[in-house]
Write a structure and sequence with these properties.
This protein has about 190 residues and is of the alpha+beta class. It is about 35% helix and about 25% strand.
Length: about 190
């Protein structure tokens, strides 16, 4: 019971931080119409989300499945299918070609930060750094996490692009996923 209380307290605190009241009581948050289970790894959960079929295809094309099934832990900022559709026409098809595997890998690993960073962790980093959390990605460059005046959390990429965190704290056995509405570019 004590562990459950701590978990519920953490979820509720993260809900206040990221402003997602529907997550406060969700035992298994729904993403893309599918329950996400904290006992499954990042890949095993992502393949069930109808909103992440493009991301899953890209992870497979880049050869990153085994890595993201590994022990991690990883923090993944997972773009939705709609996020990939915002890219210029033909970008996804071009990135998925075998000859562009290195470039695809760079884009995907730019969405991954080593460690398990919950919404509370990101907010604490931001608070300690004047309102912006600098997150170093597996790709090697940084993302900047920040909170807007309405209370929403955003990421800014190296090119100045912005992605909103739409679903925070989707816990996985080997990390955490935060769903984002835009593909970030190194």
């Amino acid at each position: 019971m004590k562990s459950y209380s701590r978990t519920l307290s953490a979820v509720m605190a993260a809900t206040l931080v990221f402003g997602a009241p529907s997550l406060a009581l969700a035992k298994n948050p729904m993403v893309g119409g599918a329950a996400m289970y904290p006992t499954k790894d990042i890949v095993d959960n992502a393949v069930n989300s109808k909103d992440h079929t493009t991301l899953v295809a890209a992870v497979k094309a880049a050869g990153l499945v085994e890595t993201l099934k590994g022990p991690g832990p990883f923090t993944v900022f997972a773009p939705t299918n709609a996020a990939f559709k915002k890219l210029p026409a033909g970008t996804v098809d071009t990135l998925l070609k075998p000859e562009n595997k290195a470039q695809l890998t760079q884009v995907l690993t730019y969405h991954v930060v080593p460690g398990r960073l919950t919404a509370m962790d990101i907010a604490a980093k931001a608070k300690a750094n004047g309102g912006k959390a600098m997150l170093t990605t597996v790709q090697g460059e940084q993302l900047t996490a920040w909170k807007d005046k309405a209370g929403g959390w955003w990421l800014t990429d190296a090119k100045g692009g912005k992605a909103k965190i739409t679903i925070p704290n989707v816990m996985q056995s080997n990390g955490v996923i935060h769903v984002v509405d835009t593909v970030l570019m190194p």
